[in-house]
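Dear support,

Our group has been running a series of protein-ligand predictions, and this particular one with magnesium ion is the one our PI (initials K.S.) wants archived with full inputs and outputs. We had some confusion internally about which version of the output was final, so please treat the block below as the authoritative record. The input we submitted was:
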Amino acid sequence: MKQKLPLLILAVFVVGALAVGLVSTFHGTNEPVETDFFAMDTLMGVQVYSRNADADGYAVQTCIGALEKELSVTIETSEIAQLNRDGHAVLTGDVQALLQRTIALSARTGGALDPTMYSIVRLWGFTTGSYRVPDGDEIAAALETVGTAHITLGENGDTALLGGAQIDFGAVAKGYAAQQSADLLAARGVTAAILSLGGNVQTVGSRPDGNDWVIGIRDPADEAQMIGKLSVSGSAAIVTSGGYQRYFEENGVTYQHIMDPATGAPVKSGLSSVTIVAQDGFLADGLSTALYVMGLDKATAFWRDSDDFEAVLITDDGDAYVTEGLAGRYVCADGFTVVTR
Ligand code: AMP
Ligand code: MG
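Confirmed final output from the archive:
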């Protein structure tokens, strides 16, 4: 089914789109207070509608800063960096929860999401920014340490033995942090907020003016533009993965940061971005990466077998495929195909 919308509507929302990827149409007197900060290698923004909005925004910044210290592979003292260095560790709190949940989601996605891709991600220089194209032997050697079968978790998930594997939470950490932040705001009594952590948007409660939250979806072919917009009511996670979010070029070839566990090279799945809408930030983040790896056919089949998320899939040609739960909530200028069950 193709749906066409007048160009005028496109013009209105593109002009209104904020740089952080949020589209704000709030006209009431209860203006949100925005807190911006840099964490997890990304510019983050939190808009809170509350009397203590400054303190609430600062609480989110503190929460994400603390999580980054535990979860970043590049912070030497982090629990995850120590695990990678020693090959074994006693795990606590967030690292324990995140590793267990990521291994489970890896199994559910048939290994499309794989937390042991770190050896490959590092080989291509995506961790340090020292980008390079590795040769086939290097990729083959690194691939030998890829796969969650290498990891042995203790009975309660409180210890891990890596068996040569290296772990990276790059595909899920921001979603996990966004969910923790949303839970924190709700616990502080906040009834309306929207967080934008790079490609991860998380809404808390409902807008005071009664309107839906509106989230712009970037055009993978031109990051400065929006290709569509999604409206969401209530609390939700809206997470986009795309090759355009991090890449390098060498000899006229573009190499992007989402890796195919089958080849150890950047994924060429025919998709240029995947946006997931789900109730949980971790789930939305993990699935956005996994469905990007799967490509359109496998991703839509996976959606048909699931009941806990909806998706907007943009192909390399710029065509949009929208799962039916979002069909009435997605707006774009060029029309889209509704994916049905
Ligand atoms: P995202 O932006 O959420 O899609 O996550 C992409 C990041 O996750 C990359 O920058 C890598 O750090 C890591 N990564 C790349 N490929 C994979 C994969 N197939 N499974 C899990 N993590 C990956
Ligand atoms: Mg992700």
